[in-house]
Amino acid sequence: MKTVYIETILLIERLHRRFLDVIKTELDRLKINDINNVQTLILYNINNEQLTIGELTNRGYYLGSNVSYNVKKLVENDFLIQERSPHDKRSTRVKLSEKGLKLCQKIDELYQRNIDALKNGKPDMNSLSTMNSTLNQLEQFWTNYINNIYKVV
């Protein structure tokens, strides 16, 4: 069991890095060099929403300090628009600029090409669905573990 568990953890980490390589390859193909792969994923996950940096961090996709730095760079390179919240002047919200929306559209096209290629190969959609279910269970296991550890201490 330990061997399988460790293999799973390492595979999740490698898959994440490999997917970042996929995004980087697409940015290179498109000759886009004013944004990195992590920043591209941040944009894609914001999409049509208006979010605070705290909301981005709370979604659990990114580390807090990295979010602030990456949002700053995305604003500087005109992928994001940062505005003061009308309700709380201390808080700022971000949304995609036209440039950010266009890049998200390109990444969506990449995802569609990947989906089309997967339709005729392995893994197939049933395998991916099963894997997603298993990964969700593992995420819930880790969440419960973290929550229960804090109750004991």
Sequence of secondary-structure elements: HHHHEEHH
Q: Please state roughly what percent of the residues sit in beta strands, choosing from under 5%, 5-15%, 15-25%, 25-35%, 35-45% or over 45%.
A: 5-15%
In angstroms, what separates the terminal alpha carbons? 27 Å
Which class of secondary structure composition applies to the elements?
mainly alpha
Number of helices: 6
Arithmetic mean of pLDDT = 90
**What is the alpha-carbon Rg in Å?**
18 Å
**CATH homologous superfamily label:** Winged helix-like DNA-binding domain superfamily/Winged helix DNA-binding domain
* Global morphology: globular
The domain tally reads 1
Give the biggest sheet: 2 strands, antiparallel
- CATH topology term: Arc Repressor Mutant, subunit A
Beta-strand segment tally: 2
- The CATH architecture is Orthogonal Bundle
Notes on the structure:
Helices cover 70% and strands 7% of the residues. The protein is globular, with a radius of gyration of 18 Å. Helix 2 packs across helix 4 (64-76). A hairpin with a 7-residue loop joins strand 1 (80-84) and strand 2. It has one domain (2-131): Arc Repressor Mutant, subunit A (Orthogonal Bundle). The chain contains 6 helices and 2 strands. The model has no long low-confidence stretch (mean pLDDT 90). 12% of the residues are buried. Strands 1-2 form a two-stranded antiparallel ribbon. With 153 residues, the protein is mainly α.
